From TrEMBL:
Highest rank taxon of the organism: Bacteria
Lineage, opening ranks: Bacteria, Bacillati, Actinomycetota, Actinomycetes, Streptosporangiales
InterPro entries: Gfo/Idh/MocA-like_OxRdtase_N, Gfo/Idh/MocA_Oxidoreductase, NAD(P)-bd_dom_sf
Organism: Nonomuraea spiralis
Protein's name in the database: Gfo/Idh/MocA family protein
Ranges of residues in domain Gfo/Idh/MocA-like oxidoreductase N-terminal: 6-124
PANTHER family: D-GLUCOSIDE 3-DEHYDROGENASE, UDP-N-ACETYL-2-AMINO-2-DEOXY-D-GLUCURONATE OXIDASE
Length: 350
């Protein structure tokens, strides 16, 4: 029998306990060997479920010779430092987005990871959500030519500044809205050449609309914010052939238009009995990480290895961070509204 992948869980708070560890328990081929958190009571909570794992307050307390890979769920600043340390020590890493506190930090991390040859995957879990995967497959042909993509992403949190970011708006965009930017890049892989940003609301409760123009002429519209009562993700893809595929939520995919005419056929519906495995994407993304690490173990380590194809990497986190920078620059330049004012206003409808 092949050796089990030896995993360290770093950061044992809410994200690890609610969204990551429960799905890791359903994946074969690995063994949790360490639970790490500055709050040892949190590490002990996960350790009690892991069986046979050691408990530590710092990665520095671990014998890294006993660890093959790490799953990290910590704030952006320690994410950057820890992934850097672990990759340089020959440890593969799964790290929750945004994976670093700034674009320069992620640029540095990209260089470190590339030199190390380690597999580092970033937790953009919605790429793995069953419904969005199916929409991505069904719309492949129309996305091969210029198309229009709309991403809806609504979440109440964060609703206050966090993790060293001074405003709620910026904290939300960098730590949650970044998912929508990643989805826009995934559905329309052509480079972004123009970005316009607009916001309404107040300092802690807002709607944000982003408009991205891509090099191939495609357009992405992102509608997002924290002004809602519940979480929602939806994506629509409209092609130049008159078709429009829609996933209005994480439950189903429909063909709304065919040749420009109303159609309304349901093409996919999520299963209700998988305990959330496919709906959120957390299960499939962790399965992809374990599989990729196992594949790396079976190959000779030569350094400078290219990222695993199709897996969100530090390069994807870097690109998303650069778009966040541009969003904030657009909003800040016009006092949270990227609108260009007309010389003479156009009167409203009577």
């Amino acid at each position: 029998m092949a050796d089990l992948l030896r995993l360290a869980l770093v950061g044992c708070g809410r994200q690890m306990q609610q969204n990551l560890f429960p799905f890791l328990q359903r994946i074969r081929g690995h063994q949790v060997v360490a639970c790490v958190d500055p709050d040892l009571s949190l590490a002990a909570d996960v350790q009690s479920l892991a069986g046979g794992a050691t408990c530590a307050s710092s990665v520095d307390d671990l014998d890294l010779e006993t660890v093959d890979a790490a799953v990290l769920a910590v704030p952006p600043e320690p994410s950057y430092r820890l992934v850097r340390q672990l990759a340089e020590s020959g440890i593969d890493c799964f790290v929750e987005k945004p994976a670093g506190p700034s674009t320069p930090a992620l640029q540095d991390l990209e260089h470190v990871v590339r030199r190390s040859g380690r597999h580092v995957q970033v937790g953009f879990n919605f790429r793995y959500a069953e419904t969005l995967q199916r929409l991505h497959e069904l719309s492949e042909e129309i996305r091969a030519t210029p198309c229009s993509v709309t991403v809806d992403f609504y979440s109440r949190h964060p609703s206050a500044p966090q993790w060293g970011v001074d405003t709620t708006l910026e904290a939300w965009i960098r730590h949650n809205g970044v998912h929508a930017l990643d989805l826009a890049r995934w559905f329309t892989p052509s480079p972004v050449v123009q970005l316009d940003a607009h916001a309404i609301g107040d300092a802690d409760r807002f709607q944000v609309n982003l408009f991205l123009r891509h090099h191939d002429g495609s357009l992405s519209t992102l509608r997002m914010g924290n002004h809602v009562k519940r979480f929602l993700v939806g994506v629509t893809v409209q092609g130049m052939d008159g078709s429009r595929y829609s996933a209005p939520s994480l439950e189903r995919v429909t063909l709304e238009l065919s040749d420009g005419l109303p159609y309304g056929q349901e093409l996919h519906a999520t299963r209700n009995l998988d305990h959330g495995w496919g709906r959120s994407g957390f299960g499939p993304e962790l399965q992809a990480f374990v599989d990729a690490c196992a594949g790396q173990q079976s190959e000779p380590h030569t350094g400078g290895r290219a990222p695993v194809k199709g897996v969100p990497s530090i390069s994807d986190a870097l690109a998303a961070s650069a778009l966040c920078d541009r969003v904030m620059a657009e909003l800040d330049a016009a006092a949270t509204n990227g609108l260009g004012y007309l010389t003479d206003s156009v009167r409203a409808s009577a």
